[in-house]
Inverse folding.
């Protein structure tokens, strides 16, 4: 049973059913009563609409980031995601409620207390799976920015992290680099796991047998990139390239290389991942994998908005945005 079935039995349009579900005022009282009776007859509960019948919809969405406020607002990736969502929501006169908390269960409790209509969850970690299952159980609509293979029935806006990593490492190897280290993000993120696999598979494709210790796990900050680069260079001075799984860490890598008076890219090349605005502003400008951050945020909002307003959308469950390599100055052909 879906909205189309309800509309067919009530002999009204799908948009009329949607307006009834969302408690819109522009519905004939007799029509509203007829539609509600059919909804009750079949115990129809499509996500947020069941709540909308009982409670007034608030035109408010929650944006959940499983990090502290300080970390979120100082990370250009999250800032760009938030900007794209906020701009789109403002155009539709939707309120937004930002919840930044490393303890995601507490963050979602706050979201529910504020009676948000739905949620956009940015970069959930593997340990958040049980909480996301709870949202599903309570029929609270949400869209994930990121990839959670364990949640096959929910909308997810992803990029092909594996292919993006392959593009970066392949470019470095084809440019003559044979000793490529990787500074990765936390392996609690699916994106980090997929980028690690792309790194190692690409090395194998080109028959490069490098020490597994050349892959290190960082913390997605400038300081973390700086520290990881220094540790690797102290132990393995023969490294001639870094593939870094975020632009923000790449900035720290560049700082470490400059401090050592190592020429970029003649001696050591650097390729990042994200294409944040700073990538084109740093000196030298960062070669990076563009994952279209603004597009991800905008799509996530549009899908959630369609769920809240119409109850159904035409988008597939998984939207995989293709990456592209942006060649600037830290790695060249």
């Amino acid at each position: 049973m879906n909205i189309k079935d309800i509309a067919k039995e009530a002999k009204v349009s799908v948009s009329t059913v949607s307006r009834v579900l969302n408690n819109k005022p522009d519905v004939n009282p007799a029509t509203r009563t007829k539609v509600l009776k059919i909804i009750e007859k079949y115990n129809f509960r499509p996500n947020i609409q069941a709540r909308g019948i009982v409670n007034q919809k608030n035109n408010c969405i929650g944006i959940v980031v499983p990090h502290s406020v300080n970390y979120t607002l100082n990370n250009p990736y999250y800032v760009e995601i938030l900007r794209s969502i906020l701009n789109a929501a403002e155009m539709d006169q939707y309120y937004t409620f930002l919840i930044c908390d490393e303890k995601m269960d507490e963050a979602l409790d706050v979201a529910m207390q504020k009676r948000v209509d739905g949620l956009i969850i940015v970069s959930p970690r593997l340990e958040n799976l049980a909480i996301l299952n709870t949202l599903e159980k309570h029929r609270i609509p949400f869209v994930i920015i990121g990839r959670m293979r364990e949640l096959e029935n929910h909308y997810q806006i992803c990029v092909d992290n594996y292919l993006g990593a392959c593009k970066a490492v392949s470019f470095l190897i084809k440019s003559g680099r044979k000793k490529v280290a990787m500074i990765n993000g936390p392996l609690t993120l699916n994106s980090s796991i997929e980028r690690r696999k792309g790194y190692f598979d690409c090395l194998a494709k080109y028959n490069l047998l490098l020490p597994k210790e050349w892959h290190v796990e960082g913390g997605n900050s400038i300081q973390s990139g700086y520290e990881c680069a220094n540790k690797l260079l102290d132990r393995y001075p023969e490294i001639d390239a870094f593939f870094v799984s975020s632009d923000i860490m790449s900035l720290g890598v560049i700082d470490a290389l400059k401090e050592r008076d190592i020429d970029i890219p003649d001696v050591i090349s650097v390729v990042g991942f994200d294409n944040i605005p700073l990538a084109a502003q740093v000196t030298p400008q960062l070669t990076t994998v563009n994952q279209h951050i603004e597009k991800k945020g905008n799509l996530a909002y549009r899908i959630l908005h369609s769920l809240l307003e119409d109850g159904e959308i035409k988008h597939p469950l998984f939207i995989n945005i293709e990456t592209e390599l942006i060649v600037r100055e830290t790695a060249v052909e």
